[in-house]
Design brief:
binds aspartic acid; eight-stranded mixed sheet
Length: 577
């Protein structure tokens, strides 16, 4: 005899008259009399109502197998909210397969449970509908990605976990080596170097659903370890990369939502900064940044005698935003780097606000026209450097207008032409990505001549994929020639010796016939979270860590056994900070 013949949530009027056995957990009980109780039995497909007409001692979360006959519920007793709501199982025998202590928290979706408690008892938490749905959506994402990549001739290659450091810009997790005392492996921040080496190895198209580890501070969208679709391909252009990654992402979205996204528009990094003040613009809503500098060409006031003046308009904001909120926004703007925030209510007869006294009538009229502002709207201006104006207005725009996480569908966007360097510190350029990123073909010559802030104008062949304002992933066309690679290392101040120690193997490999290649990686946790409408990636990870990097379930991290430390030649010193 099998333990179970059917799943709870799959029984329907079609099964009326059949004898079935379901197995699962006792969800709720309603005891009518000593000899009549209704028990909802739950498995991963949902619940089914079971009529028990014997004296029964079961409690919430007991594990049971119930055999009985499916019958239609009497009229008026149908539960529309349940998949199996038109039927129930009657004439039952109930076998208790296991007892259970009362659950540490109610399993319904209405109760808000502290996350630490949920994670400590994740095995109970996972029984909830929400987690069942999320984990199954995640499995669909993985499966759809695999199929899409394989359809496009990608071959799955597993890369090692115990490696030398990978330069993704985060801190490494390190693992001490017992056989080489005093030496450490790094856990991969990404399979970057291995995927490039596999291109030199003629694998042509590589993919892996890869675990990556980065020792960074955790946030809602970040864990120490995360999964990414990691891909690399030879003899490809940026357009090819966009095509195969869009295909994988569209397949994953379709698998979860039933609808296949077809639009994967592109925007240059520069345009994204100018219009949205961000390299991951949320294009689901307007309130775009507008250039107003030209209006202030003749200004007499120091307030607006700045390299740049830009503004945004919040429709209806004049009524919506009270004084406290505006003070709060002004404090935010200063925290983000602005000297101040100029704000104006739009009235029937023009702008109203403390700073109008520094503006001419033409300037005020111009601002209103350029921003398309109407009475009842609120206008914000930032007068500063271009970088600060864009950044602060971009953040303000999100603060004031951003819709919930997956409102308005899924808006994918490729951001192209990222700068090669993100900053210049003491005259030295700091790379925006890992140092294997190919400069833009039209800008390669600038590597020989750039000085000071000119470094920031050099574009690269790096790109990101953005979804509803979240960065899903990044990639680039790589440098495949050792001479250009050596030049970039020089610019970054990585000397010959350090190059040899850290990346000698890659430079060596490039001397043996490296094909042109490029790739991409996107986060599966983030993609899944967005597709199921969760703000926090922990909701789509079976066993995540808390914000402080601890695991309340297993208590990791824990002190190491002193004997083990001896064997590794390690001693733990008190922390000095
Ligand atoms: N290695 C990069 C990352 O993990 C992605 C890439 O450039 O392919 O973010």
């Amino acid at each position: 005899m099998p333990i179970r013949t059917d799943y709870c949530g799959e029984l329907s009027l079609e099964h009326v008259g059949q004898t079935v056995t379901v197995a699962g957990w006792v969800d709720t009980r309603r005891v009518h009399s000593e000899h009549l109780a209704f028990v909802d039995v739950r498995d991963n497909t949902g619940v089914v109502q079971v009529v028990v007409d014997e004296k029964l001692d079961v409690r919430s979360e007991y594990v049971v197998a119930v055999t009985g006959t499916v019958r239609a519920r009497p009229e008026g007793m149908v539960n529309e909210a349940l998949a199996s709501g038109e039927i129930e199982i009657a004439d039952t025998t109930v076998e208790v397969l296991n007892t259970a202590e009362p659950p540490p928290f109610p399993l319904n979706e209405r109760t808000d449970v502290d996350e630490k408690i949920r994670l400590k008892h994740r095995y109970v938490d996972l029984r909830r509908d929400r987690m069942q749905r999320n984990m199954r959506a995640r499995a669909k994402v993985n499966s759809a990605i695999r199929t899409a990549m394989e359809r496009q001739r990608f071959v799955e290659i597993e890369t090692p976990m115990l490696i030398a450091s990978t330069p993704e810009g985060a801190r490494d997790f390190v693992v001490p080596s017992r056989l080489h005392p005093g030496n450490f492996y790094a856990l991969p921040q990404s399979p970057q170097l291995f995927k490039q080496l596999s291109m030199v190895g003629g694998m042509d198209r590589y993919y892996q659903i890869a675990r990556c580890l980065r020792d960074e501070d955790l946030r809602a969208d970040r864990q120490f370890e995360f999964m990414q679709l990691d891909a690399e391909a030879s003899f490809v252009t940026q357009d090819d990369v966009f095509e195969f990654i869009s295909e994988a992402v569209a397949s994953a979205a379709e698998a979860v939502t039933g609808e296949r996204p077809t639009e994967f528009p592109r925007m240059s990094w520069y345009e994204a900064q100018e219009r949205f003040g961000s390299d991951k613009p949320d294009v689901r809503f307007g309130m775009e940044l507008n250039e107003l500098t030209h209006l202030f060409a003749e200004t007499e006031s120091n307030v607006f005698k700045t390299p740049v003046v830009k503004g945004i308009c919040m429709p209806g904001g004049a009524d919506e935003l009270g004084r406290n909120r505006i003070d709060q926004l002004t404090a935010d703007a200063k925290r983000w780097g602005a000297k101040g925030l100029a704000w104006f209510r739009v009235k029937e007869d023009g702008l109203e606000g403390a700073l109008t006294k520094f503006m001419s009538d033409d300037e005020m009229a111009g601002v209103q026209t350029e921003l398309g502002a109407s009475p009842g709207d609120m206008v914000f201006l930032i007068a500063d450097t271009r970088r600060t104006a864009n950044k602060v207005l971009g953040l303000l725009r999100l603060e004031l207008g951003r819709p919930p996480v997956n409102d308005g569908g899924f808006n994918f966007l490729w951001i192209t032409d990222f700068p090669l360097f993100e900053d210049v510190v003491d005259g030295n350029p700091i790379p925006a990505h890992h140092p294997f990123t190919m400069p833009h073909v039209d800008d390669v010559h600038l590597l020989d001549t750039a000085e000071g802030d000119e470094w920031l104008d050099i574009r690269s062949q790096a790109y990101d994929l953005v979804l509803n304002g979240w960065e899903l992933g990044s990639g680039s066309i790589r440098i495949h020639r050792s001479d250009i690679q050596a030049k970039i290392f020089d610019i970054l101040g990585i000397g010959a010796e350090e190059q040899q120690v850290k990346f000698g193997f890659l430079l060596d490999a490039f001397r043996y016939g490296a094909p042109p290649h490029g790739g991409f990686a996107f986060g599966i946790d983030r993609l899944t979270a967005l597709l199921v409408g969760e703000e926090n990636i922990r909701e789509v990870i079976a066993f995540p860590k808390t914000q402080s990097g601890a695991d309340p379930l297993t208590n990791a991290p824990t002190p190491a056994d002193p004997a083990h430390l001896d064997e590794l030649g390690l001693r733990v010193l008190p922390r000095q900070d």
